[in-house]
Amino acid sequence: MKKFNVGILGATGAVGQKFISLLQGHPWFTVTALGASERSAGKKYAEAVNWIEAVELPDDIAQMTVLECDPTKMSDVDLVFSGLDAVVATSIEESFAKAGIPVISNAKNFRSHPNVPLLVPEVNPDHIEMIKNQSFDPAGKGFIVTNPNCVVVPLVLALRPLYDAFGIKAIVLTSMQSVSGAGYPGVASLDILGNVVPFIGGEEPKIASEPMKLFGQLKSDLTLEMADFPIEATATRVPTIEGHMLAVTVEFEKKPQDLNAVIDVLKNWVSPLNGMNLPFAPKIALKVYDDERYPQPRKNAYNENGMQVGIGRIRKSNVFDVSFVALGHNTIRGAAGGAILNAELLIQKGFIK
Amino acid sequence: MKKFNVGILGATGAVGQKFISLLQGHPWFTVTALGASERSAGKKYAEAVNWIEAVELPDDIAQMTVLECDPTKMSDVDLVFSGLDAVVATSIEESFAKAGIPVISNAKNFRSHPNVPLLVPEVNPDHIEMIKNQSFDPAGKGFIVTNPNCVVVPLVLALRPLYDAFGIKAIVLTSMQSVSGAGYPGVASLDILGNVVPFIGGEEPKIASEPMKLFGQLKSDLTLEMADFPIEATATRVPTIEGHMLAVTVEFEKKPQDLNAVIDVLKNWVSPLNGMNLPFAPKIALKVYDDERYPQPRKNAYNENGMQVGIGRIRKSNVFDVSFVALGHNTIRGAAGGAILNAELLIQKGFIK
Amino acid sequence: MKKFNVGILGATGAVGQKFISLLQGHPWFTVTALGASERSAGKKYAEAVNWIEAVELPDDIAQMTVLECDPTKMSDVDLVFSGLDAVVATSIEESFAKAGIPVISNAKNFRSHPNVPLLVPEVNPDHIEMIKNQSFDPAGKGFIVTNPNCVVVPLVLALRPLYDAFGIKAIVLTSMQSVSGAGYPGVASLDILGNVVPFIGGEEPKIASEPMKLFGQLKSDLTLEMADFPIEATATRVPTIEGHMLAVTVEFEKKPQDLNAVIDVLKNWVSPLNGMNLPFAPKIALKVYDDERYPQPRKNAYNENGMQVGIGRIRKSNVFDVSFVALGHNTIRGAAGGAILNAELLIQKGFIK
Amino acid sequence: MKKFNVGILGATGAVGQKFISLLQGHPWFTVTALGASERSAGKKYAEAVNWIEAVELPDDIAQMTVLECDPTKMSDVDLVFSGLDAVVATSIEESFAKAGIPVISNAKNFRSHPNVPLLVPEVNPDHIEMIKNQSFDPAGKGFIVTNPNCVVVPLVLALRPLYDAFGIKAIVLTSMQSVSGAGYPGVASLDILGNVVPFIGGEEPKIASEPMKLFGQLKSDLTLEMADFPIEATATRVPTIEGHMLAVTVEFEKKPQDLNAVIDVLKNWVSPLNGMNLPFAPKIALKVYDDERYPQPRKNAYNENGMQVGIGRIRKSNVFDVSFVALGHNTIRGAAGGAILNAELLIQKGFIK
């Protein structure tokens, strides 16, 4: 198989660094271009970046010269991963798509665009078809695909089997989010050591709205019939490094016979990616924990290289139908790793050649 | 005013130590007897205890000889505070009550007893009357009063004004509880550093049931008509030292006109203890935070010596009527300090002389 | 006794906020002026500040209008406390001294000035006389006094008795410093949660040099004969909130008879402030711990309102003469609280009237 | 190459679990026997253990029946790894050696035995020869080899090049040790969250004495001429999970020309294991960091699967010759992983067949 040349937009930021780390040794992708702000462009990457990843900065990447985030200067790529800041993402991502370069973005800017898939490959792979309605590149080569907010990823993965089996009427959840979700430098240690902060700006509306698109029904005209159920979220920050933990309670449309029916649905669910051999697809996308002490962020967020979502404490709810906790690695599964899996699916489906 | 001699049952345990710390310099109470297990009895307190309180062990307490938890050996007290382990609390507490000694207990054993008040002075002070139906001591001098679980205290304080104004139909909450709630040694550092544990054994049933008694209606025969609404709780442990944080969403019986009506009810609520001059009563029992980043455990749990409960992020709920977060100091307001306030109210009402 | 009107320079910063917190209810001082940058000047303090102190912002302070740090605009004060950033402290502090206003500074700018006392009242109170050689204000009313680096304060307090009894030939130490030492936002949580950072920029040279001035001998011409012994320090950052911990090993000039002789010197040492009734002077300035598990930052840094220094684990050194650990509260004893105690001594000695 | 059958002594403990985790997929070793206390013997491993490793308990191990730690019951093994508690290790380890089974032990019991190597393969591989003087098994097949304390491992790896080049006269160090060093449940979270504990029982004497044996000179009679220089250590516990950090200052016998001479010696040092292809040998055994912010426990302890030691902040000392910080993964490099590497070297050298 030929390898694809990939560029990273926002290569010096926290998400950009995660893309670089995760793509080391990837069987399909070779990082050949690093894009960042004008301030960094022209410098060696090692000089432009404050490297915060735990793995060491690879030598070949360190020596690469940082480019401007401009499709004319990063033309020799088959696709770009975008870890751009929302402040600049709209125009840059659009310029790449227009230039015929697929943009696999972690930024929030195009998540609600009617023709841009908000994609979690195990959850709504059919939404990829929406690309065909995009008009950025009349030649059809360039397009934009996004992945959702880092809390939404474990939420929709845990809910997919339940939504299909029982329908969802309402959800109440509390998220306990790790500090890496705020980027770097992000949360001040004085604010979070031995503490909980009960507010994360902008987070709760995303948690309430993005699942509506993810569970949307693709119509024959390749537009979406959005799902429609209320989600009440309290987003909090806790002193963990990686892994967002959710405490969720759900009311179903159709009452399950009993709790075992719910657990069976979760345990018997089969990811639509099974058998596709996508390098970043976890063998078990949704792991069901029987031991009520799990999943836990520090111990389980890195399962299957951070791409597996965990669900545990599945029990009857006193108020709704069922309650559970879910865990996902926020900077891998919920960000860069999720975007890489999106790219893999796009290749497998023939959208990137 | 005369000072009362008080004994501490379970004086070497974490709750017992907190009683001792908090009672230093108390204007009404003098600690004159320390009761612990046979293993400790006969030793100087300083030798029997592994002192874990941040304040230093007071010299006079250090020199006291530990006694057995037996009313014949601790007879020279006007009341006892019980920090006994649940395994031994039933018979010991009963023996003191029978011997005519009021027992102000933090143990869970008698919390659901039909004639024992489960008391939070600002929430259900009238429940004190239930003591009159107790039969431990025919002479009426000895009795048992309990305080609720450490999550339930901030919950019912935050809900009291709302329950009165709007009635409550259902509650969903997630608690983020500090490690001090598990006593000492309690939670292993390997389990909780940089982590969240999504389960605390036995906690969720208490959170669901105790508020039913606290909001119960005292009938003319001094029995309770229990409240009746479902509470769905997910109890989690987070790496904080003191202060239990709750994310709560509530459905009311009567719809408030708007969010301001709810906030007004909370801000205008007046504690029934106001004007009583009880030493441990906070000036503001329920503080309403307007800044959405607060309350926070590390910064706000110690407000008013740990006796104030905080409520913040009051907002319209997408699913129910209103959501908020609440915070209470678990080992002070939710345990030893709450018990001391109970004793103060009992004295003020003439139940202890 | 008349109360002194005090101004705070750098009132919106972390040190300035600590000054405001600590001065609430001070029997000698009333905060009457708050100075900050031009950006803040003219605003209400509550609007200009991002209040990070755990105690609530006092209402009267909240309503004060922030002034520029200019002696003509803050003229109605008897002294100022400076929590200014080093970038601007030199000219501002000098302007106040020239205007006849005593400056009690926590900034490092004048610490090595030959006529400016680097003062820890229990350690070198006689150095106050150096003020008389200052030429900022010919009228002699305005002057500058500084307090040392936050690691140096517990170090010199622990060493004072030993230096006097045995002389010091060499010191090796490691500091384990809390995150509050870096101000706000300071250390990123991603850098320090569950981690140790083995470097703090600029810290080690201060630790090596400032004690030479503090242990300097005041000569008849009011200049100092500096002490002269080498200090090797490794300054590290650890995930604690308040309290700098030091592991110290010392070689003496004169060999003590045995370890007990060293411990006796420490236990029998009497602070020169005893009997002076300075409000911020701790009753026991240097507490000797016999239990080898103490002192500990979280449990002991707040002793005596954060003004007491702890020393423990005093033992024979395999390499030098004696080893010990020492602890001091960095933002109280090692910064704002230390400066307030300096001001109190200056008043008691008649330097501020 | 044939695979060796290995048994784990103390298989249910923290060290035993780490052996099991690390040996998964090992190219030379297959775990075929699990020994634990009588209480556990006879149970399935999954039922006997409270599994605390982050990786999941492997299925085949989970199903194995736990045996007693008795060589007659674990006879079908080529060697055993011992993670036994010191209380029982002496007699059990001796019984296996006598039965002709090599014991690669992490326990401290035989570390100071005159004929038992205290082995770090990169540091003193020649000490293996001491085995020939052991008399446990006259047939020469059974023997005992130990690895040192978890602080000593990074210390001697960092010192080996310096000791050879310059000789060592004295060392002062402070260790900042992670909570995993205390096993499970080990350190109570109430003791260490946001705190430093300045004492670890029994640790400092080991740090002072074990390096003397490790740097000992093997004589022709296969006994050791011990090294002889003083080490003053302060062992502290900090809130990190894995990785012991050391701040070290060293006085040399021969003065290096300058700091660069010291750095060159460290950078140019070549591990004696290079070229041997031992599976657990790190490619770079001692990594020299130029960036003064590193190494850090959370970010660097897992380098090369936790087998690499890091050294940084190499600088001239004000008191001695040179100072630096060093880091090693305590439960891998400093315990189970180190023991596995010992076994690999023993096989490579023909001591286990």
List keywords for this structure.
homotetramer; 353 residues; alpha/beta; Rossmann fold; Dihydrodipicolinate Reductase, domain 2; 2 domains; 6-stranded parallel sheet; 6-stranded mixed sheet; 11 helices
Word description of this protein:
4 copies of one chain form a homotetramer. With 353 residues, chain A is α/β, with parallel strands linked by helices. Chain A has 2 domains: 4-149 and 336-348, Rossmann fold (3-Layer(aba) Sandwich); 152-329, Dihydrodipicolinate Reductase, domain 2 (2-Layer Sandwich). Helices cover 27% and strands 21% of the residues of chain A. The first copy, chain A, has 11 helices and 14 strands. Chain A has helices spanning 14-23, 45-48, 59-62, 86-98, 152-166, 189-192, 203-214, 259-268, 297-300, 303-306, 332-348; strands at residues 4-9, 29-36, 67-68, 79-82, 103-105, 144-146, 168-177, 217-218, 224-225, 231-237, 244-252, 286-288, 309-316, 322-328. A 6-stranded parallel beta sheet of chain A has the order 3-2-1-4-5-6, with helices on both faces. In chain A, strands 10-7-11-14-13-12 form a 6-stranded mixed beta sheet, with helices on one face. In chain A, helix 1 crosses helix 11. The radius of gyration of chain A is 20 Å and the shape is globular. The model of chain A has no long low-confidence stretch (mean pLDDT 97). Chains A and B meet through strand 7, strand 10, strand 11 and helix 9 of A and strand 7, strand 10, strand 11 and helix 9 of B.
